[in-house]
Amino acid sequence: MTVSEVPTTRPIITVTRRLPPKVEARLTTMFDARLNSTDIPFDAAALSQALASSDAMITTLGDPLHAATLHAATLSGSSEVRTKLLAHFGVGYDNIDIAVARELGITVTNTPGVLTDDTADLAILLLLATARRAGEGERELRAGNWSGWHPTHLLGTRVSGKTLGLVGFGRIGRAVAARARDGFGMRVLAWSRSLTDQQATDAGVVRCATIEALLTACDFVSVHVPSTHHTRHLINAERLARMRPGAFLINTARGDVIDEIALVAALRAGAIAGVGLDVFEGEPAVRSELLELPNAVLLPHIGSATDETRTAMGMLAVDNLEAFFSGRVVPNPVA
Ligand code: DGY
Q1: pLDDT tens digits for 216-232?
Q2: Which of 45, 135, 232, 250 lies most in the core, judged by the most C-beta atoms within 10 Å?
Q3: What is the mean pLDDT of the chain?
Q4: Cα(91) to centroid(ligand 1), Å
Q5: Whose CA is nearest to atom 6 of ligand 1?
Q6: How far are the Cα atoms of 93, 128, 135 from residue 183, in angstroms, in the given order?
Q7: Strand order across the 274-277 sheet
Q8: What's the CA gap between 8 and 323, in Å, rounded?
Q9: 330 occurs within a structural domain
């Protein structure tokens, strides 16, 4: 028997993407960690294979763990999968069929809380960039087309003192509210299915009873709901038509919350003033119509992309693995 064939008693953990160095180092000391040194995303076959040959996995939003992929990993003649825990690296887990995972006895955990501030910062960045036409200005300058300062050059829209509407009022929505109110003196309105008047008052915002009422009343609207079958195309053509003509729409949540075809039509018709997007319906593919619109500020899903936060997300995923394999309650269960 060669060294590599010596059986290991440590749980086998497959990690689908590269993680920050400190996280990979911790994983390696604790588990038989199968790291993805190439960082090439797993396809459905590779995911099923990993599910069938690992005790747990660290997954990311780019891993489509749909019913067929999960079922394909079941051990022959049983409805069990070798993988018992999906320690998902992210707060959103819409890439995982939670009902099927549960049915197959797989625990799923996520990484809430640690990415709140950075994602809220990015929502504010998009809000400022759209209002102040930062993308247009940068493109103009880099193309060598800046003809110098003049009084009517690239006039944008003032942010301070305006009204911001939040669609969804969880951790990230609340963090955006605090920044907008305390940093820019904005009046903040919020809508969520469960928000009460008292909770809104306690958080220093005004509750709107309907999304429609919120959209009609705001200069800026920022989306902070997860992707579920309830929120798919929550912002559709009808609701976009409720927004003020000079209003801006920001999305750092999930792409499919906004109907992108309706969004492009609204932007082309001047029904809204601009959009700031960090997430897309078909990402990483981005609709060419959006790429052509000067009043769209587009980022490649970097809401939580700081060294500090990505390390904290990884450490939280490892905390969940550690708890699971020590027989303790996992800190962040979602299924
Ligand atoms: C998440 O955690 O769901 C984010 O979208 C990744 O930053």
Answers
A1: 999 999 999 999 999 99
A2: 250
A3: 96
A4: 5
A5: 90
A6: 31, 12, 22
A7: 206-207, 187-191, 163-167, 220-223, 248-251, 274-277, 296-298
A8: 20
A9: no
- Parent domain of 89: 12-114+307-325
Same domain, 120 and 237: yes
Contact, 92 vs 113, CB < 8 A? no
Same domain, 128 and 172: yes
233-292 pLDDT per residue, tens: 999 999 999 999 999 999 999 999 999 999 999 999 999 999 999 999 999 999 999 999
Q: How far is the CA of 90 from the centre of ligand 1 (A)?
A: 5
Question: In angstroms, what is the span from residue 93 Cα to ligand 1's centroid?
Answer: 8
For residue 31, which amino acid is it?
F
Question: Ligand 1: which of 19, 61, 96, 308 to mutate, most ligand atoms within 8 Å of CB?
Answer: 61
Candidate of 91, 95, 122, 334 to mutate for ligand 1, largest count of ligand atoms within 8 Å of Cβ: 91
Asked whether residue 156 is assigned to any structural domain, the reply reads yes
Split into its structural domains, the chain has a count of: 2
> Could you give the residue numbers annotated as active site?
254, 283, 301
Tell me how far the alpha carbon of residue 155 lies from the centroid of ligand 1, in angstroms.
33
30 and 87 belong to one structural domain? yes
